[in-house]
Specification:
There is one protein chain. The protein contains 12 helices and 18 strands. The protein is α+β, with helices and mostly antiparallel strands. The strands form 4 sheets. Strands 1, 2, 3, 5, 6, 7 and 8 form a 7-stranded antiparallel β-sheet that branches. It has a 6-stranded mixed β-sheet with strand order 9-15-16-4-17-18. Strands 11-13-14 form a 3-stranded antiparallel β-sheet. The radius of gyration is 22 Å and the shape is globular. The model has no long low-confidence stretch (mean pLDDT about 95).
């Protein structure tokens, strides 16, 4: 059941986003500091509140003065809504919340924590009925403990709101460390269980595993295949071992270039057999060769048949791989973040002579300082 639209009020640099419609592919572009990351952070917050961890999210992000638009003196509350619409049908489910900062201490309490159902789900109009999910007046949402089907749906959906960020490829990074052999339920956002997750795919979906290996070798010609088995000395861990073409030596994650390691993680994420309902990526193009970026775009398009993809990027090369309909330009106007989705139709004349990336570079569509 895809997301239809999102509305955010008084969250970080976003005073009032209006309805942001979410399509299969959503590429956010804009200058540094305009608020792309704040939009992505909103999904992190929904993920946290559904797990009864909103308090930790608030503390980790600088408490209410950092989370409210221009702080608690300017904004008296924070609000948000997310509306869902099944493929080919009308909207039928939604979640709405309102958070108010506590007066005598840090943190928030819920003034609104509601699931909504559209009475015209079988038609074309919208008339919503709401039920409190249990968080009203409390510091945490009731989603995690509510027994209603609606709450169960929201829990499952919000669980997919992980922001995948494979930037850290230093020698001590999570990507380069051995995985716990049985830690393979899902790929973690930092790729810390990459070897174990690939090991599971190899065992349960060998065709998908072969496709992942083939795609990696198309970008890294030296790569032949993975050699994934629990470690002989310590079977509780597994290393990201692989073989190079023309060599009998075994290599591991420490022998991969930063760009190749990130590409392996991205390929695993996007070509896994059962995709998350939502895939959120922050600057996935980092360190990739232009050919790798083209391959990445192809995988994103393929994955968007099953998942909704949300990406923040600075890459003109990546943007050029997509339609104008996929692009959301993020700007800073009147001291607030504004979002504008582009369209092939409105840019038809421009696109006869320029790519969408060139229009971005020339500041025709905004997204530049």
């Amino acid at each position: 059941m895809p997301i239809d639209r999102i509305h955010i009020k008084n969250f970080k640099s976003i005073r009032d986003s209006g309805d942001i419609h979410i399509k299969p592919i959503n590429i956010l572009i804009g200058a540094n500091g305009v608020g792309k990351s704040n939009f992505i952070s909103f999904f992190k917050m929904l993920n946290s509140l559904s797990k009864k961890r909103l308090g930790f999210y608030v503390a980790d992000n600088g408490y209410e003065n950092s989370l409210l638009y221009f702080g608690r003196k300017k904004s008296k509350s924070m609000e948000g809504s997310i509306v869902f619409k099944p493929e080919g049908k009308n909207t039928n489910n939604r979640y709405d919340f309102k958070l108010v900062p506590k007066k005598q201490s840090t943190g928030f309490y819920f003034e609104r924590d509601e699931g909504g159902f559209n009475s015209f789900a079988k038609g074309n109009n919208e008339s919503w009925s709401f039920e409190d999910l249990g968080g009203k007046g409390k510091e945490e949402s009731g989603i995690s403990e509510n027994g209603m089907d609606r709450a169960g749906f929201l829990r499952e959906y919000f669980d997919s709101f992980n922001v995948f960020h494979f930037h850290d490829t230093s020698s001590n990074s999570a990507l380069k460390q051995p995985s716990k052999t049985l830690d393979y339920k899902y790929l973690k956002p930092d790729g810390s269980n990459l070897a174990a997750f690939l090991y599971k795919i190899k065992d349960t979906h060998p065709k998908h595993f072969k496709m992942i290996e083939y795609t990696i070798s198309s970008v890294a010609p030296f790569f032949e295949k993975f050699d994934l088995l629990p470690d002989d000395k310590n079977p509780d861990v597994i290393f990201l071992n692989w073989l190079e073409k023309g060599s009998d030596e075994y290599f591991n994650a420490h022998h991969l270039s930063d760009g190749t390691l990130r590409f392996i993680a991205l390929t695993t994420l996007l070509l896994q057999p059962v995709l998350p309902s939502t895939i959120i990526l922050d600057e996935p193009e980092l360190g990739l060769h232009p050919f790798g970026i083209a391959k990445l775009a192809g995988m994103i398009k393929k994955a968007s048949v099953q998942s909704q993809i949300i990406i923040a990027t600075q890459s003109v090369n990546l943007v050029n791989e997509f339609s104008a309909d996929d692009i959301i330009v993020v700007n800073r106007e009147d001291n607030q973040t504004v979002f504008k989705r582009q369209s092939e139709e409105s840019l038809k004349t421009w696109l006869e002579d320029y790519s969408i990336g060139e229009l971005w570079e020339k500041n025709v569509i905004g997204g530049r300082l």
